[in-house]
Amino acid sequence: MSGVGVARQAAVVKIFDAHCHLQDRRIASVAPQLIRTALDSGVQRFVVNGVSEMDWHIVKQMGDEYPSIIPCFGLHPWYVNERSPNWFKALREFLAETPAAAVGEIGLDKGAHAKNIDFREQVDVFRLQLELAKVLEKPVSVHCVRAFGDLLEIMSSTGPFPAGVILHSYMGSAELVPGLAKLGSYFSFSGHLTSVKPEKAKEMLKSVPKDRILIETDAPDGLLSVKTSSLFSFPDVVASIGETENQFGDSAAEITSLSKEGLNHPANIHRVLKYVATLLEMPEEELAELSFQNATRLFSYPGSKVQS
């Protein structure tokens, strides 16, 4: 398919970015351009996840300003050590004052990035927020690194979760999928998937029920790896995104420079769509529609901007 063909497709296909961080200081200054670029490429919704008390107000402002943004508030495990004594009260207040908001990003991390953060504290903070999401009947976005056994145990003792749990940038095994799905999990895939061997990624993707598949960018992280682009070529998608960016004059240079810095942006979800569809052996249009419907259903809670 030519670049022009993909550009036309992007104008028709609706895409839902189920997890990103447009408030991140690395891209916040160009967020308006990024949003405009993504909207023009077919991305209709952005789920913007706060990670600590320091950015919840920014996420709220973005949600108030942009109809396309679904705000989420949560304390990410990387920031557990920085929380204030009143963090949970503040979180409840943000959620009460923002009916359109969901919960997230929360989670568990036993990886190198969280090596100095006591795991028992992570579990306490995670459990509080998971229980809050269940009480509020809101979906919750979960980060999990090398802690899927703990996650399944906690979810089993607390769940099920009829409002949904988004396992963002899912990197767990295919074997874990049925148990997590039974508890109400949705499985969201990003460019991080390219760090997994394609054979393993394919097995995992095919184990996920079709009504639980989401796609995301995790921008400004989650940029697809160069390694994978040698296996699956994306020249047409890159061209279509480039054409979209070039429509914005001076802002195009700022947006294009993000990739040079190793940073991601929401219009790159077309690359994720192509990669995941390739592994699933599914037409891109079908995956786009399927994941959009799943996300729309998930985020159609009372007070939400989204209506199924």
What does this structure look like?
This protein has helices at residues 3-12, 31-41, 56-65, 87-97, 119-136, 148-158, 177-182, 198-207, 226-229, 235-245, 250-260, 269-280, 284-298; strands spanning 15-20, 43-49, 69-73, 102-109, 140-145, 165-167, 185-189, 213-215. The protein is built from 13 helices and eight strands. Strands 1-2-3-4-5-6-7-8 form an eight-stranded parallel sheet. The two termini are 32 Å apart. It is α/β, with parallel strands linked by helices and 308 residues long. Helix 1 (3-12) packs across helix 10 and helix 2 crosses helix 10 (235-245). 45% of the residues lie in helices and 14% in strands. Strand 6 (165-167), helix 7 (177-182) and strand 7 form a beta-alpha-beta unit.
Helix and strand arrangement:
Blueprint lengths: L2 H10 L2 E6 L10 H11 L1 E7 L6 H10 L3 E5 L13 H11 L4 E8 L9 H18 L3 E6 L2 H11 L6 E3 L9 H6 L2 E5 L8 H10 L5 E3 L10 H4 L5 H11 L4 H11 L8 H12 L3 H15 L10
Parallel strand pairs: 1-2, 2-3, 3-4, 4-5, 5-6, 6-7, 7-8
Helix pairs in contact: 1-10, 2-10
Characteristics of this structure?
8 strands, alpha/beta, 13 helices, metal-binding, disordered N terminus, Metal_Hydrolase, 308 residues
Short overview:
Helices cover 45% and strands 14% of the residues. The protein is an alpha/beta fold.
